[in-house]
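Appendix B, example 12.
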Amino acid sequence: MQHIVVLTGAGISAESGIKTFRDSDGLWEGHDIMEVASPIGWERNQKKVLNFYNIRRRQLLEVEPNAAHLALVDLEKKYKVAIITQNIDDLHERAGSSKVIHLHGELLKVRSTFDDDLIMDWRKDLNSGDFCENHYQLRPHVVWFGEAVPMFPKAVSLIEDADLVIIVGTSMQVYPAAALLDYVDLNIPVYFVDPKPALLSRTSTTIITEKASVGIPDLVTKLLEESF
């Protein structure tokens, strides 16, 4: 069975109503990004960081997967599919995708500040005084700026095995996610779905200048009907 790897970013979730990306002024939902998404920000103002993610967690529970998320599930009817996402929401899982790798963590999980491997599901607000079993504060299970990306090696292993790559909702300009394309053979076909696509220096790239909810369903229909 041929293997398709899909790289997704903020653009696919934005169509469900989630604002998960930095604004052009360098702010993230009105916050300096280093105040709410860095170890330094956590040390300086734990309450601000927790409140920021609490608001986003509540919002996530109110939205639904869109046509792009749902279409990617249909690919599994014919292909082996893995999704590598930069998003911290669970919309791919809720849509029904069976293999999703979160490079930057998951909003509906928290982890111990004492033991990074002590991770638990979390759907309510996270507050100061919410402790793990070892009596250490819990924090969002999110990769912050300046932290390692523990899922990157697994993502590399998946994309090295790809027969076709789809990029949607991400400009592939931010590292380390952008480096994943370095592990794709130059002869492997790549589809780039974006209304304002960045230039990718690959001769095998097909650019689809549509938003995710339009371009992905059309591409999935094509891939299900034809071979590549």
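The chain has two domains: 1-18+65-104+148-228, 21-62+108-142. The chain has a mean pLDDT of 92.
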